[in-house]
Amino acid sequence: MSKVTTLQLLDPLKVFLEYDNQYEIYVAQCLQTGHLVTADDTDTAKQMITELLQDEVSSAVQDNNINELLSNPAPIESWAKWEMASKVARLDERKIQFLGALPSQLRLLIGPAEVETAIRIATGRTSTAA
Known about the structure:
With about 130 residues, this protein is α/β, with parallel strands linked by helices. It contains 4 helices and 6 strands; from the N terminus they run ββββαααβαβ. It has one domain. Helix content is about 35%, strand content about 30%. Strands 1, 2, 3, 4, 5 and 6 form a 6-stranded mixed beta sheet that branches. The termini are far apart.
């Protein structure tokens, strides 16, 4: 079975994680898709955003609808925060994989495939740094 390792705009998916002082909660947001989760701690936020993105990317690929997935990206401020945080902190990198029916044009080229992409999580302010 072939392995597709790059979905261009989705590889890697960039996630910015920070503590929101106003609501006293951790917020993780995917920059490309705009998907957002909140949690009481960083580990839960990372796990939740990873699971959400795995489901959403899988559905988008199977439905041949990547454009819809990317139609509501995060605000530019989040992109800037991710860039700054990624330069000063070690990124948490995770992989998402799924088997799926790829779009017909891609399936003709490579046959059935396992799709894989990376999620790179940059952490900004946390409760200890706030």
